[in-house]
Amino acid sequence: MIDLIDGNVSAAIAAKLARVKCVPCFPITPQTEIIETIQKWTVDGTWKDVQFTQLESEHSAMSAAFGAQATGSRTFTATSSQGLFLMHEMLPIIAGARAPMVLVNVSRGVSSPITLWPDHNDVLAMRDTGFITYICETNQEVLDSIIIAYKVGENKTISLPSIVNMDGFIHSYTRTQVDIPKQSLVDKFLPKLEMPITLDIKAPKTLGIPTLGDYMRFREQLHKAQLDSFKVIKQAHNEWYKLTKRKYDFVESYKLKDAQAAIVIMGPNTTIARAAVDNLRKKGVKVGLLRIRLYRPLPESEIREALKNIKKIAVVDQNICPGMSGIMYPEIKACLYGSQNIISNYIAGLGGKAISQEELEVVLTETLNTKQELRKWLL
């Protein structure tokens, strides 16, 4: 069924289709509509078999989410910006305990000063927590990615939590056409949750106990699970494509085959960058684009393969690491270590500042013509 819905409603529908059993939450703009939608469904009887609980803070919500998932209940929650930062303490604990819940982050610039509009500093601050992380371009991708995230995270060889990221307002409050799959299709794709280790009062155990000398072994196992998830994610993408004809990958290449310059970008501003590429192509300028969809684990080999013949690259970061550069920029440089690429960095869209097609055409043109790496802000 195709409906005209925003990103927040897309996320709520995905949680319902995934047959989530527990939703602990705390409101924060621009995420609040997700939990309002779920609460409405619990009140009017649309969604009966779910435990909806509003806690006193985001930290409490994430703590409750960990407890629920640890008992073997499929769990979902959502947040934004400072709320995600307040949850931060719990995220490495959940990943380390291998609890495969799903967290939706509705990106919003971090304080201070206060903004309600999006950039990626909140979600990218979580990059080292152990959560598998998907960065979405469309509302359709938000819905699909949540369901896929449960499929991947609950695989017994992976057992990892996931973050599915959308941009506040651009996704959360903008309605687009979304193809909502039937419950029977999702049930076919996503089996009933069976966690190998759960908390049970009839068989008491402790998770996350002190390890001291063995700590490094656990971190190595967590890292290995992240790397092992590449195969499982690819399998899930392929299975989802067979059921829905919607194709996803770790990265998305666009007109890179003969490109002399390219943008690397992620999130919904990819749509604008794609239009910039198309317009320059009409003028005979050979440019292309690489979108990063899977941010953790970082698909290094796919990035290297896609960009290996592109001599000049502009990484457009919708974030900033103050005193250094954009966050994605050094990671792309690391992927291309030893190459002869000229890799520039553009900081854009902080706090939701609009990025125009014309600006991105300038970025591509400057990148094509430069003889040295550039560090610039699109103010």
Write up what this structure looks like.
The structure is a single chain. The chain folds into 2 domains: 2-244, 3-Layer(aba) Sandwich (Rossmann fold); 251-377, Rossmann fold (3-Layer(aba) Sandwich), CATH 3.40.50. 39% of the residues lie in helices and 18% in strands. The protein contains 13 helices and 15 strands. Strands 9-11-10-13-14-15 form a 6-stranded mixed sheet, sandwiched between helices. Strands 4-5-7-6-12 form a 5-stranded mixed sheet, with helices on both faces.
Number of domains: 2
Distance between the termini: 41 Å
Provide the β-strand percentage band. Answer: 15-25%
CATH topology of the largest domain: Rossmann fold
Task: Kindly provide the name of the CATH class of the largest domain.
Answer: Alpha Beta
Largest sheet: 6 strands, mixed
CATH architecture name of the largest domain:
3-Layer(aba) Sandwich
As residue ranges, the low-confidence spans are: none
Shape: globular
Number of DSSP helical runs: 13
- Structural class assignment: alpha/beta
Record the strand order, biggest sheet: 9-11-10-13-14-15
* Portion of residues within helices: 25-40%
Give the SSE string.
Answer: EHEHEHEHHEHEHEEHHEEHEEHEHEHE
- Rg from Cα: 21 Å
User: In the CATH hierarchy, what is the superfamily of the largest domain?
Assistant: Thiamin diphosphate (ThDP)-binding fold, Pyr/PP domains
Total E-strand runs:
15
Q: Tell me, rounded to a whole number, the average pLDDT.
A: 97
